[in-house]
C-alpha cells in the first residue's frame, strides 16, 4: 500500500486487474476494499488536491465495499 498525504486516509492500494481499491483510514486504522473502481477514479484520488474530499465525493457510498481488518 502507498502512504498518502491526507488527514483522512493513511494508505491506499489499487489492483487494476480486479478494479479494487484498498483504503486504510488514519483515525480508525480500518482497511476497506472498494469493488468496481475504475482506474480513472483511482488516478483522480491520487492526484487530488484533497484526497479526503475526493474520496468522499467519488468513492464513499459510490462503490460496494467490505472491511478487511482494523
Describe this structure in words.
β2 and β3 (20-25) form a beta hairpin. This protein has one domain. It has 70 residues and is of the alpha+beta class. The chain is built from two helices and five strands; from the N terminus they run ββββααβ. α1 (39-47) runs antiparallel to α2 (51-58). Helix content is 24%, strand content 36%. Strands 1-2-3-4-5 form a five-stranded antiparallel β-sheet, with no helix packed on it. The chain is globular, with a radius of gyration of 11 Å.
Give structural attributes.
single chain, alpha+beta, about 70 residues, globular, 2 helices, 5 strands, five-stranded antiparallel β-sheet
Number of helices, where a helix is a run of at least 4 consecutive DSSP H or I residues: 2
Largest sheet: 5 strands, antiparallel
Briefly note the structural class of the backbone: alpha+beta
Mean pLDDT: 94
What number of structural domains do the residues give?
A: 1
How many beta-strand segments?
Answer: 5
Amino acid at each position: 500500500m502507498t502512504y498518502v498525504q491526507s488527514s483522512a486516509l493513511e494508505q491506499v492500494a489499487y489492483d487494476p486487474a480486479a478494479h479494487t481499491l484498498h483504503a486504510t483510514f488514519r483515525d480508525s486504522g480500518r482497511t476497506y476494499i472498494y469493488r468496481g473502481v475504475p482506474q480513472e477514479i483511482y488516478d483522480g484520488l491520487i492526484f487530488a488536491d484533497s484526497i479526503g474530499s475526493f474520496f468522499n465525493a467519488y468513492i464513499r457510498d459510490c462503490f460496494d465495499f467490505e472491511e478487511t481488518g482494523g
